């Protein structure tokens, strides 16, 4: 039994290490936000896009960014939950809920912990609120399209279809991330961190689901009851009980 639960314990231990280890997520969140080797590149990229924004460019970027918006993610999740419930695909339904909304909630906690301000909060095309690290739109796109990819890939046998799905999911994530940088909503490192954290969370959910599935398959089956035993029990006459008359 210990060996069967090793995978689950390892996955839970990895999550605890990821959340609490000061080398991965420092307790001093201000220092974590400031220690950034790409800070110069962050500001240069954000400043260049901010200086070259036009109404047409912003319209295109806003169309791209909608693929990671909370409204779009909510609609897709609602449809998928109904479909999985109708098909009674309960393990897939649980995995979807933990992977996508669960990962998005963890990212909100990360934003509050890191407390990094957005590149721009004032301007003709800027109307942002909240914190910047990590990009919520990007991690939502990474989680949703990545989890859908994990659902679809095992059912695809042809290599070209598998490659097409991988490229499509990757393109959607990159388009959302690019739009968030170009619109001035996030730094480059915000988007890269969101993709990284989203991928790590998906890997954790995948390993946990496989470990739990393996554990369930190794559980002992209930003792089988032979049909002959049932028939004999049914055919055996009940013993008569004699009641002596009262005197």
Characterise the protein shown here.
This protein has 247 residues and is an all-alpha fold. It has one domain (11-219). The protein contains ten helices and no strands. The protein has helices spanning 6-20, 29-34, 39-51, 55-65, 70-87, 90-114, 136-152, 159-182, 188-217, 227-235. The longest helix has 30 residues, at 188-217. The chain starts with 5 loop residues before the first helix and ends in a 12-residue tail after the last helix.
Question: How does the SSE layout of this entry go?
Answer:
Layout: H1 6-20, H2 29-34, H3 39-51, H4 55-65, H5 70-87, H6 90-114, H7 136-152, H8 159-182, H9 188-217, H10 227-235
Helix pairs in contact: 1-9, 4-8, 5-6, 6-7, 6-9, 7-8, 7-9, 8-9
Note the beta-strand portion.
under 5%
The major beta sheet can be summarized as:
none
- Discrete helix count: 10
Radius of gyration: 27 Å
Structural class category: mainly alpha
What is the typical, i.e. mean, pLDDT?
Answer: 79
| Gap between N and C termini | 64 Å
Topology, number of strands: 0
> In the residues, how many domains can be counted?
1
Which features does this protein show?
247 residues; mainly alpha; 68% helix; disordered N terminus
Summarize, please.
Helix 5 packs antiparallel against helix 6 and helix 6 runs antiparallel to helix 7.
């Amino acid at each position: 039994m210990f060996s069967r639960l090793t995978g689950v314990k390892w996955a839970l231990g990895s999550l605890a290490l990821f959340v609490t280890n000061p080398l991965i997520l420092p307790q001093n969140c201000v220092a974590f936000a400031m220690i950034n080797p790409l800070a110069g590149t962050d500001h240069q990229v954000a400043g260049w896009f901010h200086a070259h924004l036009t109404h047409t460019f912003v319209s295109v970027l806003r169309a791209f960014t909608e693929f990671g918006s909370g409204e779009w993610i909510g609609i897709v999740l609602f449809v998928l939950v109904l479909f999985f419930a109708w098909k009674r695909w309960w393990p897939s339904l649980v995995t979807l809920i933990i992977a996508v909304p669960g990962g998005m909630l963890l990212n909100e906690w990360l934003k509050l912990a890191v407390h990094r301000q957005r590149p721009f909060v004032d301007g003709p095309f800027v109307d942002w609120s909240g914190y910047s690290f990590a990009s919520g739109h990007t991690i939502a796109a990474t989680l949703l399209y990545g989890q859908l990819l994990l659902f679809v890939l095992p059912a695809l046998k042809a290599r070209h279809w598998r490659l097409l799905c991988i490229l499509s999911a990757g393109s959607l994530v990159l388009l959302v991330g690019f739009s968030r940088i170009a619109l001035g909503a996030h730094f480059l490192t915000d988007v890269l961190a969101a993709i990284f954290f989203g991928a790590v969370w998906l890997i954790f959910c995948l390993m946990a689901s496989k470990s739990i599935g393996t554990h369930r398959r190794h559980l002992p089956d209930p003792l089988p009851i032979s049909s002959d035993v049932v028939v004999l029990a049914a055919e055996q006459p009940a013993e008569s009980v004699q009641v002596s008359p009262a005197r």
